[in-house]
Amino acid sequence: MTTKDEEHFVYIVECADGTLYTGYTLDLGLRIKTHNAGRGAKYTRGRRPVHLLYTETYATRGDALRREQEIKAKTRAAKLQLITEARRP
Predict the structure, then answer these.
(1) If pLDDT is split at 50, 70 and 90, which confidence band does 89 have?
(2) pTM of the predicted model, to two decimals?
(3) Which CATH fold would you assign to the domain 8-87?
(4) Is 54 exposed, middle or buried (0-12, 13-18, 19+ CB in 10 A)?
């Protein structure tokens, strides 16, 4: 069960082969470590190491999961644009 104080993260990582993976987690640091240990998503297991490129934070799981699906539906170019825009000062 989640509490109202929890943060829900949507993230994009770049895999060693240059592909992008989008996911959801409650613990971003642990999730990246899990991916890099080969115990994360099946997609990232053979594409290690992964490097965190982008995150968004949400107050609810539902909002985060909806956003994860929105990002996953984007093209690679659109994801890269999202990452680039987030890095601008």
Answers:
(1) confident
(2) 0.92
(3) GIY-YIG endonuclease (3.40.1440)
(4) buried
